[in-house]
Amino acid sequence: MADPSLHHETQPLKQIAVDYTPEACDHCPDSNSIALTFDHRGGARWRTTSRFQYGTFSALIQCPKGNTSGLNFNLYLSSLEGDKSQDEIDFEFLGKDKTIVQTNYYTTGTGNREQIHDLGFNCSDGFHEYVIKWDKEHIEWVIDGKLVRRIERKEGENFPDKPMFLYASVWDASYIDNARWTGPYVGCDAPYVCLYKDIHVPVRTAVE
């Protein structure tokens, strides 16, 4: 039987795939850093090239500066972005207020488990560490070493189990809920750049 602690051994992220607008995604494998830009081209989304089933995922993130109303920037796990039955575990920043972050998770396409957390800082004022720890029995969301949310598997309730990619994107979410979620898009400070560095993923990928 495999040692479950192996799921939480991590390694620097070396290779990514870019789902759209690759020219707005600047990846430097040597420095383990990624810059996503949102401007007149729209945003971009990167992901790992492999799925993982359980493990620890982390990055230092500096969110875009300026008036980011309307934008969503994030770090999340998903079995497949756009799939109606996806499993997902999220950190999502809402451009209308950069002093908060939203956590959420989905099982077979069903979410509605959002929680809002006060960061105690402006997420664009420097790099902060965001960690998702996911195993068979629980999920933890950790910011700068502080546990902000923990959920445990409960009998009879769905739990994220599908192998998942690590994703990140910057996109205009102002059309959702009549701009109540992220605010109306203003765009006065474009281009908006979200910086990721020291990105780590599990050593072991999922066997599919």
From TrEMBL:
Keywords: Glycosidase, Hydrolase. Residues 4-187 form the GH16 domain. This is Probable xyloglucan endotransglucosylase/hydrolase protein 27.
